[in-house]
Design a protein that fits this description.
- The complex is a heterotetramer, with two copies of chain A (165 residues) and two copies of chain B (502 residues).
- Chain A is mostly beta strands and 165 residues long.
- Chain A contains one helix and 16 strands.
- In chain A, the strands form three sheets. An eight-stranded antiparallel β-barrel of chain A has the order 1-2-3-4-5-6-7-8.
- In chain B, α12 runs antiparallel to α13.
- The chains are: A mainly beta (165), B alpha+beta (502).
- At the B-C interface, α1, β19 and α12 of B face α1, β19 and α12 of C.
Chain lengths: 165, 502, 502, 165
């Protein structure tokens, strides 16, 4: 079965057959893929070379932590690929961006207000957790479309704090 | 002489202290908050008592309750560890008033060094050079601070007078950003130490943060256990320490050591403590502050001197003489500590919480791990993010670095994100390997996410892994393959499967 | 000079060797049997290749296949570890014939020492005292053995000529029980070494088993790394070792060390090896055998000498000179190793197999754990029962013992039974603490299940635990209490529950 | 609720109430009983003293490994106790004893034969596993009533090897 895996702007064509081998970018490789101790950790022997990766999946993105590096991979089969291309769908997230609390904590400051334009990297919220002041930054340019919390609020993990358009 | 000790702390340091007590045949009493019922220190202590709800102010900062518990349990002494109540002279005082031994310095010494303003004045009087900054008492108003700021000159540092560990510390490049920074510094200081006072200090550039471990007994002996290099910091949080410092030669070591002892003696210091110095590129050094407690990074000193600092703390508190004179202290090899924090280096080092599903710690020759967590334990947002200290010893700095690299590669922690990848990158960076760095290195010169050919090579590997995981998920979802219980945890290809049946 | 090493072994020793290679910047190739696909050595190596089915003869004893893999993978050397092919001169020969480096002694030395009969003759000729027993060649018939038995006198030992580690060893008290014992000894030797030859040796009473670590380079230098006390054995299996031996004083150490080096030189020895001696109560010592390989208990020597023996093995194999001369070797402190076996001390030490559900290893100052297992790994009956080596260092023997006790208390292994309780009892026994024991101590004088008042006190505690577990099970079964997901893993009483809600 | 816990010949009366306390042999004790990380490991705070035990249950017996010691505990509630006493049932196992393989391995020798009388501690079977010859001994005096295997047989865990009466 054929898949297209994309990291940033690099795409790899990976063809899996059930005979313990795959074809990656035309290279034929023997593979033994083994999940360890019921954990999302995989030991992979690729032509004998030993790799270990821990993997988590968020929406369409597979996060692979490999040899101390994190890779965000989008995997599609040919059908999905064609579908996306015909509908000109983009991989990057579009439309509204929702800032959710990455961990429980207390909102100590909100340096922006509704309607304000922000650039990628600007601080949106300062959240205190584990005795540290953590700056939550804008992932892209945009305009603040909504602020759902106020300074002093205690928030739970994944609680929506603010939205950007 | 006390035979039972209450440990007024949690996490790895509580476990460390319990270990020292056990090896001395001393009984241990643990305390815990609601979320720490299953914590390692509770499991390992001889006794354990509930303090209260998770927030520190309701549990680990409840000095009154802790003393109550100590007396009820018949403990003869209290070890505060670091953080929490460790540098609160009022707590040390209260412990003594309750007829218990405080395993640490005298309250007067904690107070003198605790107010960083007073501390600077005291050691300066004793002839120890200090960093230019605000003088005398530490409870300055915002107005006072703004006034002296210009005299000191920019860039400067706003620091918590009750501080330590970089909490409540801010850098100011100009006067107009001072008010906001003072405000946030006070807020963080208040949260961390229950005291919002701050003071100002000139910001030395290209400086290293090098500290000297000292220990004094009640018989008038004060010795130092040489230096620790602590310049590898991010937002004033130490991330990696080594002993000795690659920057310090023997003459400088002796000079710093002597002045460190003098600074300690200036406040009639007792038990273990650390003098932090800033050292500029011309090897001039300036007193920064004294941490009147056991230091997070004490193990690297233990590994190069052979002195068990925590056991020595307890002996000194029992009124014993130091086991070693200054002449006995010699450095053997090199030690490095990496602080393993539950932080996501790929997401601005935000804290990461949750249940640890798997922990495989490195081991083998020259490797030590101090930790308070285990697989199944849950990291909560209530306390700091340090979950483990990885310490490696080597005959040389080179061997210690290579050993640390392999130990980091072996470390497996699942359930939360950790800063292990940061350390792996750091230990591979040429500037670190040759020992050329200052306190700004991590933030200004070190690239965490750089691209190299290894990156290129691993991308396709990662792509393959992601594809196989996706493929497998699809197959399982579609239930094309019926799998035995064993196989769900162990996906095999038909080919491989057949091979195994032979 | 080779830059990639194949490790022809599994378990903790394969992991140990991989660590040494990584720290030297050498690539590693692992091999594995079907049941070891997820073993730690496979996960940690740079490359890994399947050997075959679980039984050793089809996998880890397949020398031909291993050499094939080494060549295909481009490895320049093979490290055999201990056991399996480590002491097979034909394998070492084949490795060299294949143009690869064998990280160990020359085949001729393995052969000379491998046949215990020949070994005894050789070292005796070199002036090293030996235990009275059968002379010369080792492949004696049952008739020959019975004939010489009377000359030697009873009690005597039947030992495998290809032996080591006490496998295929039997004690005979009289002639009439000899035939049966020879039979079973041959059977076990055949199974363990693929060679059923045995020889006879007088059984010395009240003797200690003390060995000397030696290492030689290819430039004619042979040094020793002092002694290890190995008298704590059960059925000739070492259970605990310490370095140095509490029985050996400096003069005896030097004498034994010199003769050990002489014995090694008698067979033109290269790389690391161990000379085993029997030492009687009058401090006379006799050559027992030489283990021409890395020893299980090598870490305790590493901890007191500071020498990384495995790294030194690799350097020597690369043609380097030894890094230390005999004068450089000094002993610092004391080290003890407890072998943690998957055996049930409460059921005649029967091996215990199954999946490890939880592993929490001890750590902290002076503690080292060498292991090849982790939580989730399955212990199979195919290989030996050693799952972990717990090594503790102390400034003194006393500190090492106290540290080992606390480390054993910390160790948590679930899923299989282990002999940890045995070690806990042993380290609490007065005779061990004062160092008064010989090779018969464990079997004859040491009571594992003795009754003391601690036993009395703990009985009621155990009764309470058992009752609470039963009560809980009953409650759950009867579904009287509906429990939230969190609560099923955390059973609380109403009272405690309410306290937590405050 | 009242239970009787018995270890060897010592019996303890243990009364559990749901208020976080128990009464053991008349002693009133506060108790906090906590199972750790979904494992059969329990952390118990008994009047503040911290104990940790790993527990497994076989038929009527609860095996408690506590501070490096193993305790075999029989727990009954009052009803079961009365029942047993009236029926004069004994705790010890009666009648036939079945020797099952404690682990997979190969039978290398069977030093006894059917009809032979054996004493407690006599070797019944020698089983090779983990490269060791393991002697399976008689748990009590008796007579060999059946031998189900022969030397050379490979046996699975818990496979019946021999029976005693």
């Amino acid at each position: 079965m054929k898949y297209i895996a994309t990291i940033d702007d690099r795409s790899f064509e990976i063809d899996i057959n059930e005979q313990g081998e795959i074809i990656a970018d035309g290279q034929r490789l023997s593979v033994d893929f083994h999940s360890v101790a019921d954990q999302p950790v995989y030991s992979m022997l690729l032509n004998g070379e030993s790799f270990e990766a821990s993997v988590s999946t968020r929406e369409m993105t597979v996060e692979v932590l490999l040899r101390g590096r994190l890779f965000l991979v989008n995997v599609e089969d040919e059908r999905q690929r064609r579908l996306r291309e015909t509908t000109h769908m983009e991989l990057e997230q579009e439309g509204e961006f929702t800032l959710a609390a990455p961990m429980p904590g207390m909102v100590v400051a909100i340096p922006v207000e509704v309607g304000q334009s922000v650039e990628k990297g600007d601080n949106l919220i300062i959240l205190e957790s584990m005795k540290m002041q953590n700056e939550l930054k804008a992932p892209r340019d945009g305009k603040v479309s909504g602020v759902r919390v106020s300074p002093g609020d205690s928030v739970d993990q994944n609680q929506v704090l603010l939205t950007l358009i | 002489m006390f035979t039972k000790v209450l440990i007024a702390n949690r996490g790895e340091i509580a476990v460390r202290i319990i270990r020292a007590c056990r090896e001395l045949g001393i009984e241990t009493v643990a305390i815990y908050s609601d979320v720490d019922r299953a914590a390692l220190h509770v499991r390992q202590a001889n006794e354990a008592y509930l303090l209260g709800p998770a927030p520190s102010r309701d549990s680990y900062l409840r000095g009154d309750k802790i003393i109550e518990i100590a007396k009820a349990a018949g403990a003869g002494a209290i070890h505060p560890g670091y953080g929490f109540l460790a540098e609160r002279d009022d707590f040390a005082e209260a412990v003594q008033d309750a007829g218990l031994v405080f395993i640490g310095p005298r309250p007067s010494a904690i107070a003198a060094m605790g107010d960083k303003g007073v501390a600077r004045a005291t050691v300066a009087a004793a002839g120890v050079p200090i960093v230019p900054g605000t003088e005398g008492i530490g409870d300055l108003s915002d107005e006072d601070l703004l006034a002296v700021a210009n005299e000191i000159g920019f860039p400067l540092l706003i620091k918590a007078t009750a501080g330590g560990g970089g909490k409540g510390m801010r850098e100011a490049a100009s006067l107009d950003e001072m008010p906001g920074l003072i405000k946030s510094a006070r807020r963080e200081a208040e949260a961390a130490f229950g005291n919002g006072n701050v003071y100002l200090e000139k910001l030395l550039l290209d400086a290293r943060h090098i500290e000297i471990q000292v220990i004094a007994d009640s018989h008038g002996n004060t010795i130092h256990l040489a230096d620790r290099e602590c310049s590898i910091q991010r937002r004033h949080q130490k991330l990696l320490e080594e002993a000795p410092s690659p920057f310090v030669d023997e003459p400088l070591r002796q000079k710093m050591g002597e002045l460190a002892c003098r600074a300690a003696e200036a406040v009639d210091y007792l038990n273990a403590g650390t003098i932090e110095f800033l050292v500029d590129k011309d090897r001039n050094f300036y007193f920064l502050e004294m941490n009147t407690r056991l230091q997070v990074e004490h193990p690297i000193t233990e590994m190069v001197t052979g002195v068990d600092i925590v056991k020595e703390q307890i002996r000194v508190a029992r009124g014993r003489k130091l086991r070693n004179s200054q002449e006995d202290i010699t450095l053997n090899g090199w030690a490095i500590e990496c602080r393993i924090n539950a932080e996501d280096p790929y997401n601005n080092f935000l804290p990461s919480t949750g249940q640890l599903t798997s922990v495989i710690a490195p081991s083998g020759p020259g490797v030590r791990v101090d930790t308070g967590v285990y697989a199944g334990f849950t990291i909560t947002p209530h306390y700091d993010s340090l979950i483990s200290k990885l310490i490696c010893w080597g005959e040389t700095r080179g061997e210690a670095i290579l050993r640390m690299r392999r130990a980091l590669d072996e470390f497996r922690i699942l359930g939360v994100r950790t800063n292990i990848p940061f350390h792996q990158k750091l230990l591979a960076s040429p500037r670190f390997m040759v020992g050329q760095f200052d306190t700004r290195f991590v933030e200004e010169r070190f690239k965490f996410e750089e691209n190299d050919e290894e990156q290129e090579r691993l991308e396709i590997i990662a792509a393959v892994v992601a594809t196989l995981v996706t493929h497998r998920a699809t197959q399982e979802a579609a239930q094309i393959i019926r799998q035995s219980e064993r196989d769900t945890s162990n996906w095999k290809w038909v080919g491989r499967w057949e091979r195994m049946q032979r």
